[in-house]
């Protein structure tokens, strides 16, 4: 059975962010992920992690101004300098928090724009070079157009092409089962064929994005396949609880 990481940006929202670490540990999780730690000093987040006895699985690079609609900077040619600064910030936090992975968000840009693609390729290489120097892995994630309209990286095959083109063993795919099903379907086959490139996996029920085992997919079968392909990382629980977080954890205990 996979090892699960609680996503603290979506789960345990009944509490302030820094209190969610202990709540996750008390609920039985051994690792956590979240979107962004940057509202707090890195040392404060690291202490919350250590105090709860948890392992960090992943977090995202700064996305620009989330409240203004930014969803990453990597594909935006006019914001290259901001991307460099965001990358430096992410690495500084990553070193203190001791994350094994950073997720580079692509941003809102036309998927067929040549300038956006060239910028994305340049920034992917830049990020790969910088994270490799400090021993942190890098992942990229296709995100579906319904949840994030206009997101540049919205195709799994394209993500694999970009990873293969770069040819770096420390740059891999963040395979979100929820996004995969909405974008393409064929989750099991994709897990099998993309297994060598997968660096992180996330799960949520489709189409509600609630707890696993409550949607249209056979999540038990998917978890079996994750084991079968030899994946040994964490599976991030990036779902929105249908009610209270603790009240919805029966899915995990039923496995």
Describe this structure in words.
- With 255 residues, the protein is of the alpha/beta class.
- The chain has one domain: Divalent-metal-dependent TIM barrel enzymes (TIM Barrel, Alpha-Beta Barrel), CATH 3.20.20.
- It is built from nine helices and eight strands.
- It has an eight-stranded parallel beta barrel, surrounded by five helices.
- Helix 2 runs parallel beside helix 3 and helix 3 runs parallel beside helix 4.
- The model has no long low-confidence stretch (mean pLDDT 98).
Q: SS-based structural class? A: alpha/beta
Q: What order do the strands of the largest sheet run in, or round the barrel if closed?
A: 1-2-3-4-5-6-7-8
CATH second-level architecture: Alpha-Beta Barrel
Output the number of helix runs: 9
Distance between the termini: 8 Å
Tell how many strands the DSSP assignment holds.
8
Provide a compact summary of the structure.
This protein has 255 residues and is α/β, with parallel strands linked by helices. The protein has nine helices and eight strands.
